[in-house]
């Protein structure tokens, strides 16, 4: 049985007071009845990690995550945050290779492979993002591109290391656009990713990997998306900034 996860990616939103207010609202709304066996992760901006983690305190099944980490261990890299720093704060998750990082910060396969390694070496679970832009889907090359993204940043891992990774399929054309992949499109791509993993690592291993869908997930479409057999949860952007809606999305994920 794969781990089911609903993760919120707050991106670069909320000031500190708003971030604390949202965390406290979520703490009031998310309980065992709401979340079942689903893990909830809040991927918050770096400066809020410590405060949000402290607020979550004993709520063992809501965890905090970072949105990026450096490929370097430490040193003269002004403005960067290293995986060992996150480890020293007991941060359990980190998003790696979000399409916004690929697009605006020029992050590509080889660099992201290093970041994945750095996360795993520091006991962080990488949430590795892949997904195609619209023009690639229109050329019908989306499956090939996503296979390549998975290959270039994950296929160097041992089977044991791969099992520490969570994958998020996020079609770029569905991010922040209100345009969601249909449940069929999501399922098809998740199956493509799982088959690709199976080709390299074997079906038994591939079947253990949690694959999340991201791209305009909301309370209205979560049920249908999460009922797909290869969709193990969501990576939610905009809708994770609203406590009621995010809670409803968590409820839609049955574990
Ligand atoms: O990028 C995303 C999550 O990482 C998805 O963002 P939206 O849910 O706002 O489309």
TrEMBL record:
What broad class of enzyme is this?
Answer: isomerase
Q: Which Pfam families match?
A: TIM
Instruction: Name it.
Output: Triosephosphate isomerase
According to its UniProt record, which residues of this chain constitute the active site? 98, 170
Organism expressing this protein natively: Chryseotalea sanaruensis
Q: Which SUPFAM superfamilies does this entry report, sorted A to Z?
A: Triosephosphate isomerase (TIM) (SSF51351)
Biological function: Involved in the gluconeogenesis. Catalyzes stereospecifically the conversion of dihydroxyacetone phosphate (DHAP) to D-glyceraldehyde-3-phosphate (G3P).
The family database entries (PROSITE patterns) matched by this protein are listed as: TIM_1, TIM_2
- For binding substrate, which residues are annotated in this chain's numbering? 9-11, 176, 216, 237-238
Keyword check for Isomerase, yes or no.
yes
**Keywords assigned by UniProt, alphabetized:** Cytoplasm, Gluconeogenesis, Glycolysis, Isomerase
According to the record, the signal peptide region is none
Name its cellular compartments.
Cytoplasm
């Amino acid at each position: 049985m794969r781990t089911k996860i609903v993760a919120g990616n707050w991106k670069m939103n909320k000031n500190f007071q708003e971030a604390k207010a949202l965390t406290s609202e979520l703490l009031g709304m998310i309980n065992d009845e709401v979340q079942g066996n689903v893990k909830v992760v809040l991927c918050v901006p770096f400066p809020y990690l410590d405060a949000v983690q402290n607020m979550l305190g004993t709520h063992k099944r809501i965890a905090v995550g970072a949105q990026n980490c450096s490929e370097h261990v430490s040193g003269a890299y002004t403005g960067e945050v290293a995986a060992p720093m996150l480890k020293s704060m007991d941060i359990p998750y980190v998003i790696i290779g979000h399409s916004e990082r690929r697009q605006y910060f020029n992050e590509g396969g080889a660099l992201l492979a290093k970041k994945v390694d750095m996360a795993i070496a520091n006991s962080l679970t990488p949430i590795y993002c892949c997904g195609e832009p619209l023009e690639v889907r229109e050329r019908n090359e989306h499956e090939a591109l996503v296979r390549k993204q998975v290959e270039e940043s994950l296929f160097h891992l041992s089977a044991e290391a791969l099992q520490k990774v969570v994958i998020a399929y996020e079609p770029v054309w569905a991010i922040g656009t209100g345009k969601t992949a249909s449940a069929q499109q999501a399922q098809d791509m998740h199956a493509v990713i799982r088959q690709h993993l199976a080709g390299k690592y074997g079906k038994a291993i591939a079947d253990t990997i949690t694959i999340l869908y991201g791209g305009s997930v909301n309370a209205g479409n979560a049920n249908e998306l999460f009922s797909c057999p290869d969709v193990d949860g969501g990576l939610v952007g905009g809708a994770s900034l609203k406590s009621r809606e995010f809670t409803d999305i968590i409820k839609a994920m049955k574990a």
